[in-house]
Amino acid sequence: FDTDYEGKARASLDILEENDFVYVHVEAPDEAGHTGNIEEKIKALENFDERLVGTMLESLDLEETKVLLLPDHATPISLKTHTSETVPYLIYPGDQKAGGYSEEIAGKMSTGVIKGYDLMKRFIRDK
Questions:
Q1: 59: which residues sit within 8 A by CB, 6+ positions away?
Q2: Is the peptide bond before 88 cis (omega within 30 degrees of 0)?
Q3: C-alpha to C-alpha distance for 104 and 101, rounded to whole angstroms
Q4: 38 backbone dihedrals φ, ψ, rounded to 5°
Q5: pLDDT of residue 34
Q6: Integer CA distances (angstroms), 119 to 24, 30, 88, 93, 94, in order
Q7: Alpha-carbon distances of 50 from 9, 45, 46, 107, rounded to whole Å
Q8: pLDDT digits (tens, 9 = 90+) for 98-124
Q9: For residue range 41-98, what is the model confidence (pLDDT) as tens digits?
Q10: Number of other CB atoms surrounding residue 116 within 10 Å
Q11: Strand, helix or coil at 120?
């Protein structure tokens, strides 16, 4: 759970100085799901949002930047293992009008289940 969120943000911003794309992986929410610890999972998600995403968004030119946020799979704390249900994703800017970002909303999205390679095509294509 001890992830250097700000370090990941700074390293990602440095990469974007010379590259058009950066991929950032954070394991803390997944690990909290494996332990079944709801407090740690909430803390990990809040840290991800504030300390990594927030730090990056403060520094990026959002007129010139696209962002795709998603987990690589679900790890419900009740099961403590990976599952195959639909995961939420967010493309900014995008045409999604889901009204939020959660597993429940993901299950109701009109896009339905989307394969990873199709999601990446959509991310690259959408304006």
A1: 9, 13
A2: no
A3: 8
A4: -65, -35
A5: 96
A6: 16, 21, 12, 14, 12
A7: 11, 9, 6, 25
A8: 566 666 766 666 666 788 899 899 888
A9: 999 999 999 999 999 999 999 899 999 988 999 899 999 999 988 788 888 887 555 5
A10: 10
A11: helix
